């Protein structure tokens, strides 16, 4: 048996070739270590798109006009399109956004072509509406919030927010930024009807002059005897003096009458465009850093905090304005990763201590070393070259779940090899014999567990996609546990010596004394308590079943 060949079986071959087993173990661990830095980290897993978005820019001035001119026409046109599960629309004074969710088993590319063809066939959109943009909807997830707040005017606050957004987008790890609390700039022109009549002008004259001089959307409201013209500027370059200098009329004597001569022009911000945004009792704007697609949430947060620090260091904030960060979503995934590492270290320590006490230091060491192999091997296979998973709340939970399962095979194999060699001699033959004794039962146990978790991948829809990531990590861990316990562990235990010789080292003598006492205690428990209780249960098996069912019913109630 000292010369084993591969044709005699892969387990005996690896047991007789420790170099191959060690190379496999080292290679997997090294590849896993290198893969750690490449894996994306995200709080929620990024999934394949299952919806489309239709965006139409239309400065109508009111949500009702946008809905009637754009949204309703698109919705009616798409009513008969196959593959649409749900369709929702949102209309504002500046345009329309429609979200379309596909049926579970329908191809999104096919739906995209069908929707595009139907929307392109609509010929009665308003003349001012831009061409609809139809695209797949990528899942967006916020990574961190930045808050600009303080005692300052709205113009300064929004200018700072815009500059901060530009700096954030200048970071390679940040692809999208949105500003919450933004208010559209507006011009309010207050005109007196009496003054217009005295100058021989009408409200229509003012409206026509403004329309010819700007591309703004304008609405008029009457308040007491005055008329208010409200304009939402399409570009921020429009300022108060631009409107005051709009020519209304040239009198017969050459006198020119401007808007500023007959009206009061005020530069304000639209209070109706957003909800009130307050932070720590001050007017504020929230800047949301968003991760999409292949973005790494930890890298995005780090880049955002770097920009915030640069703003503080360079004193870019005026007196009375503060910049704070909050709701850092990377903290959740980082805490999960810390828990995963903590559980792995705790698991290795407990396995080593228990096996060292009841079996052997060598067995304990090599069984515990199986966890790093499984851990880093799974990380390596999660890379884009294989299954393409990220470190997120679902995959890390899969790790945490698997860490409590994968060590079982190695413990069973290690105990079997140790017992066989102790009873029959320290030979390579007995190492293989001890492994083969439990190979089939442990294989079936692992495969049964894999099948149980694999059933989660058969759930349809988004929920099934999420559970699939969790189940896939558990399955990979379990498969690697088979490789480690059946191929690598026997090779390491082939050199195990079970015969205890007197050792002059006081530490080793102390360990042997603890092992002897623990073994004696285990045998006492087995012979005096467990076996008598088992014999009694087998004799009165029906009573045991009834007691179990009754206890289960009491707990359930």
For this structure, the CATH topology of the largest domain is Multidrug efflux transporter AcrB transmembrane fold
Whole-number radius of gyration? Answer: 36 Å
Strand content: 15-25%
What structural class do the secondary elements suggest?
alpha+beta
- CATH architecture heading of the largest domain: Up-down Bundle
Q: Helical proportion?
A: 40-55%
Rounded average pLDDT: 83
Q: Characterize the biggest β-sheet.
A: 5 strands, antiparallel
The level-1 CATH class of the largest domain = Mainly Alpha
Number of strands: 15
In whole angstroms, the N-to-C terminal distance is 59 Å
Backbone shape = elongated
Query: What is the CATH superfamily classification of the largest domain?
Result: Multidrug efflux transporter AcrB transmembrane domain
As for the number of domains, it is: 5
Unreliable stretches, pLDDT < 50, 5 or more residues? 218-225, 233-237
Q: Tell me the number of helical segments per DSSP (H or I, 4 or more residues long).
A: 19
Observed structural traits:
557 residues, alpha+beta, Multidrug efflux transporter AcrB transmembrane fold, Alpha-Beta Plaits, 5 domains, five-stranded antiparallel β-sheet, four-stranded antiparallel β-sheet, elongated
Descriptive account of the structure:
With 557 residues, the protein is of the alpha+beta class. The protein folds into 5 domains: 6-42 and 333-499, Up-down Bundle (Multidrug efflux transporter AcrB transmembrane fold); 51-136, Alpha-Beta Plaits (2-Layer Sandwich); 140-183 and 275-328, Multidrug efflux transporter AcrB pore domain like (Alpha-Beta Plaits), CATH 3.30.70.1320; 185-269, Multidrug efflux transporter AcrB TolC docking domain, DN and DC subdomains, CATH 3.30.2090; 502-557. Helix content is 54%, strand content 18%. The protein has helices spanning 10-16, 18-36, 63-77, 108-120, 154-169, 193-198, 203-213, 240-244, 259-262, 297-313, 330-358, 361-368, 370-381, 393-403, 407-424, 428-454, 461-493, 506-539, 541-556, and strands at 51-57, 84-92, 95-102, 133-136, 140-150, 176-180, 185-192, 217-223, 226-232, 247-250, 256-258, 263-269, 278-279, 282-292, 321-326. The strands form 4 sheets. Strands 5, 6, 13, 14 and 15 form a 5-stranded antiparallel sheet that branches. A 4-stranded antiparallel sheet has the order 2-3-1-4, covered by helices on one side. Strand 2 and strand 3 (95-102) form a beta hairpin. The relative contact order is 0.12.
């Amino acid at each position: 048996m000292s010369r084993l060949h591969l044709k005699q079986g892969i387990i005996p071959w690896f047991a007789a070739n420790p170099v191959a087993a060690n190379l496999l173990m080292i290679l997997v661990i090294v590849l896993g270590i290198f893969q750690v830095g490449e894996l994306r980290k995200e709080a929620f897993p990024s999934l394949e798109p299952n919806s489309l978005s239709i965006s139409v820019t239309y400065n109508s001035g009111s949500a009702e006009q946008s809905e009637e001119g754009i949204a309703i026409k698109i919705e009616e046109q798409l009513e008969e399109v196959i593959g649409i599960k749900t369709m929702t629309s949102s209309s504002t004074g500046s345009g329309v956004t429609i979200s379309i969710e596909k049926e579970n088993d329908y191809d999104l590319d096919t739906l995209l072509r069908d929707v595009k063809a139907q929307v392109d066939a609509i010929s009665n959109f308003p003349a001012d509406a831009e061409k609809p943009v139809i695209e797949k909807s990528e899942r967006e997830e916020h990574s961190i919030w930045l808050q600009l707040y303080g005692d300052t005017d709205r113009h300064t606050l929004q200018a700072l927010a815009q500059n901060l957004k530009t700096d954030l987008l200048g970071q390679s790890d940040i692809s999208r930024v949105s500003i919450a609390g933004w208010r559209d700039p507006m011009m309010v022109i207050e005109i007196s009807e009496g003054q217009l009549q005295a100058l021989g002008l009408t409200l229509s004259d003012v409206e026509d002059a403004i329309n010819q001089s700007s591309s703004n959307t304008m609405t008029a409201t009457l308040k007491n005897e005055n008329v208010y013209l409200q304009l939402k500027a399409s570009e921020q370059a429009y300022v108060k003096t631009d409107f005051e200098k709009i020519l209304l009329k040239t009198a017969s004597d050459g006198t020119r009458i401007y808007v500023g001569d007959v009206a009061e022009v005020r530069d304000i911000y639209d209070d109706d465009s957003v909800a009130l945004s307050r932070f720590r009792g001050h007017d504020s704007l929230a800047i949301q850093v968003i991760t999409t697609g292949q973005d790494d949430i930890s890298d995005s947060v780090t880049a955002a905090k770097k920009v915030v620090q640069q703003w503080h260091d360079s004193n870019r904030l005026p007196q009375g304005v503060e910049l704070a960060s909050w709701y850092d979503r990377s903290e959740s995934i980082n805490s999960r990763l810390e828990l995963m590492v903590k559980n792995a270290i705790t698991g290795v320590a407990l396995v080593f201590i228990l096996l060292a006490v009841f079996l052997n230091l060598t067995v304990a060491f090599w069984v515990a070393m199986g966890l790093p192999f499984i851990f880093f091997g799974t990380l390596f296979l999660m890379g884009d070259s294989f299954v393409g998973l990220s470190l997120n709340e679902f995959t890390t939970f899969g790790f945490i779940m698997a860490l409590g399962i994968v060590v079982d095979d190695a413990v069973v194999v290690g105990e079997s090899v140790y017992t066989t060699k102790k009873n029959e001699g320290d030979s390579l033959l007995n190492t293989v014999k001890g492994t083969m004794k439990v190979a089939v039962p442990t294989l079936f146990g692992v495969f049964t567990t894999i099948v149980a978790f694999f059933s989660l991948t058969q759930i349809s829809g988004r929920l099934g996609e999420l559970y699939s990531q969790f189940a896939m990590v558990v399955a990979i861990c379990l498969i690697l546990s088979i490789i480690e316990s059946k191929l690598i562990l026997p090779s390491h235990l082939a050199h195990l010596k079970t015969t205890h010789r007197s050792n002059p080292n006081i530490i080793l003598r102390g360990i042997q004394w603890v092992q002897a006492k623990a073994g004696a205690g285990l045998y006492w428990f087995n012979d005096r308590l467990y076996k008598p209780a088992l014999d009694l249960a087998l004799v009165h098996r029906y009573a045991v079943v009834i007691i179990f069912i009754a206890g289960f019913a009491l707990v359930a109630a």
